[in-house]
Amino acid sequence: MKWHELALNEDKNTRHVLGLSGGKDSAALAIYIKDHYPKISEKMEYFFSDTGSELQEVYETLDRLEAYLGREITRLSSGKPFEHWLKMHGNYLPSPRERWCTLMMKIKPFERFVGDDPVISYIGIRADENREGYISKKPTIKAVFPFVEDGIVREDVFQKLENSIGIPKYYEWRSRSGCYFCFFQRQDEWLGLKRRHPDLFEEAKRIEREVSKKKFDWVKGEVEECGQGYTWNQSGTLDEIVARAEEKEKTKRVSKTKGTQKWQDLLKSESYDDDPEDQACLICSL
Ligand code: SF4
User: Which of 112, 102, 165, 117 lies closest to 14 in space, CA to CA?
Assistant: First the structure.
């Protein structure tokens, strides 16, 4: 049975939910369903799990989407800020292997939202992606993948957004939505954060400083220990990461390989969002 037949045949008690991350794919899915399957769209509950550490651009995207859909997007929350959960996790920063942030600030609020109700959850994984995704393991939640079944690929997603609410602004410097300090950020994205939101960059540095451990080096004296749980990125402190990104940028500028491309072209041509490491983080960035 196709996803839309299943959706229309479910009994009245089944809830239909679509989680928006502030990212392009979930937003495009909401638009796609509204435009092509209005009967399903009417039943849909839209939600966004707000960590309280999101970028302003994410809220702007959600506002535009609410206006387009003509529907409210329910904002969910863990009820506590990131630093509360950080303390609860022994001041150990989350990382790709220890994603307690996603669980505490995104998935648990979602599970509270749906309770034990029978639910169809609409997931925006595209037909040109090779990932299965993970949102919740609750047996009452059935996941459906309309883009996969209907053959919708990355370019279609961009087209839909361009024709409706526009591409979320942070794609000019970042490849996915999510918390401003997300450890999935690449070096150049940390640099983008520093330039676009210097206050948030400083805040991420402050958090990093507060959890950092010191070690003694015979040449440099006392230095910060880098690695899982101590810094946002395994390979160094934020200052070191940004310094490397600036260096790389200078080299790129000299070689001028991509200088004339628009950011949309770059994003379309690079497989930014097919990172298998992202599997548990779909609720944050899809
Ligand atoms: S966006 Fe990143 S930091 Fe925020 S909850 Fe998801 S994985 Fe964690």
Answer: 117
| C-alpha of residue 76 to centroid of ligand 1, in Å | 15
Pseudo-torsion of CA 275, 233, 103, 202, nearest 10°?
Answer: -120
- pLDDT tens-place string over residues 223-252: 777 777 889 998 899 999 999 999 999 887
Beta bridge partners of 144: 122
Beta-carbon count within 10 A of 202 CB: 11
Cβ of 22 closer than 6 Å to ligand 1, yes or no, is no
Strand bridging mode 213-217 / 221-225: antiparallel
Distance separating alpha carbons of residues 215 and 155, to the nearest angstrom: 48
From ligand 1's centre to the CA of 285, what distance in Å?
8
Whether pTM exceeds 0.70: yes
Query: Which residues, given as ranges, of the chain have pLDDT below 70?
Result: 132-136, 254-286
